Amino acid sequence: MDERLLEIREATEVDDALVAAMARLVPQLSSSNPPPDAAALSAIVASDASVLLLAEEDGEVVGAMTLVVFTIPTGVRAWIEDVVVDEAARGRGVGDALNRAAIERAREAGARTVDLTSRPSREAANHLYRRLGFEQRDTNVYRLDLQ
What we know:
With 147 residues, the protein is α+β, with helices and mostly antiparallel strands. The protein is built from four helices and five strands; from the N terminus they run βααβββαβα. The chain has helices at 16-29, 38-46, 94-108, 123-131, and strands at 6-10, 50-57, 60-72, 75-85, 114-115.
């Protein structure tokens, strides 16, 4: 049996390996947005509002997500965005570990809730979110395209 060491860590610096990892992962998440370059990753890593969490197996990045934590008049809110697990690593608990790490960080930051969206076609991801305790809300999600 192949035992791999899975570690979840915050990206605190940008190097060629991180840029390459995101160039490999982001197309698996979105075909309409290009992977972030070093400058874009640096802005994410430097932001006080966002945390780029990486899942590494034996030192290789096999998943990533962004946790955004912000304060509004009604309290601290947390939002999970851009969750992606490499196709070759799916089904091994990577998404579960990333989400649990994000939930714990949101809790530590004082957030009362964590929100996320997921397309219905992402059946495995939606099953994971429900298993973790996320509940589907009866709300409308609106988007204004600024481009």
